[in-house]
Amino acid sequence: xxxxxxxxxxxxxxxxGFLGVFVLFRRMALVGDALSHVALPGLAVAIAxxxxxxxxxxxxxxxxxxxxxxxxxATRLYEEAIVGILxxxxxxxxxxxxxxxxxxxxxxxxxxxxxxxxxxxxxxxSLAIGLATLALYRQLALVSFSSDLARANGxxxxxxxxxxxxxxxxxxxxGVKVVGTLLVGSLVIIPAASGANLARSLKVLTGxxxxxxxxxxxxxxxxxxxxxxxxxxxxxxxxxxxxxxxLALKPLVA
Amino acid sequence: xxxxxxxxxxEHLTVQYDRQPVIRDLSFDVHRGDRVMIxxxxxxxxxxxxRALLGFIPYSGRIWWxxxxxxxxxxxxxxxxxxxxxxxAELFRFGKxxxxxxxxxxxxxxxxxxxxxxxxxxxxxAGEFQRVLIAFALAQKPDVLLFDEPTSDIDIGGQxxxxxxxxxxxxxxxLTLLMISHDLNVVLRYATEVLCLNRDFRCHGAPRDILTxxxxxxxxxxxxxxxxxxxxxxxxxxxxxxxxxxx
Lengths: 254, 247
Hints:
Chain A is mainly α. Chain A is 85% helix and 0% strand.
């Protein structure tokens, strides 16, 4: 079972590490973090209904992603502000709805409770996110660079932004299972930020971000497995350690 | 100008932000091969005009483009997020026309920037970055180029060469240019047409015919002063101009 969990973790890391490049590029680092808390009430409702919590998280996150996109267009509030509102409400609701062991698993992740179905779902979802990001690579890069330049090059900026939000929601749902809602933002941001310390091209940055994400998940899972610690926080600490390594190496590439 | 065919016709164009008209009832034509410079004080709607022409924002009135033309766009450098590791060659792969690495140097040579192909955008100076954006727009093989000139940060010497190159390229490729400019010397030297934009005052014609002191006073206000741009960030405006009305 540990091998399967490891495989699922690696797949999720590849997808999230890849997408994280564009989260950082678009300066949405905290959006991914805050978005994750929206998963909490979804988890609570799914548990109450007796279905697999991941479906609740997915449904809540997708609804939030689409909602944020349309509210920001209708109100001209920054996406960040709307995410800020939604995530506090979701956190408040989620904490009241969940209790004890459930709450801890939701906040900090619990890979040991993964069912075989969860594992395959994680692998499939990771593959879908990775392929969709690859297909949107050119358009995402141009939109992140300048939305006017993207429009002038025939990119439908609104459509790309909505798809990006949906991909981010899916990636967060994946991460929730691995490290929990409190820490999933780190999975999106830290590997990409570590890569940005060392890369001078988008290609190298993408490669490094995926590498750092995979390395932290593998190291974190192995250490947690051997020590009996919670895997989520260990993975995040590994990411932090690799970030420090990237900082130390930065003078060598500058 | 009457001899060449029109590539763009603008009729009674009005653009509003928050129900405030920024451009009111503007009409003009652009013909193939024209080099049109758009002049006006801050907030006159120059960049807004470009955004309407490119179809980025809603407007009323009519904007007609010859369906056969491709329109290229050089945004003001300041709109662009470039504190990120992307190389010049990578940017050229993201355009509508994907330029292979081997051809990027050739495209950059057009604007004297061949050496920049493998540099990261984050390390370019404002002037180098502008050249890259021009080369990127030209690589899409446009028939008409809209060039929103950055307001500052570019040394005069460098700027002169950019205009000279653009003039040569425009002649070679029968390119029609629409440029937002802040520099009257550039306008006088390179424009075939001038379009002045202000809330209440308009002019349109050949630069030497219409850029009289009276017109400039009406366009920019009573005491026009010619500023050298300072380089402090506070001086940067979305639609900044080198010319400002004195108090």
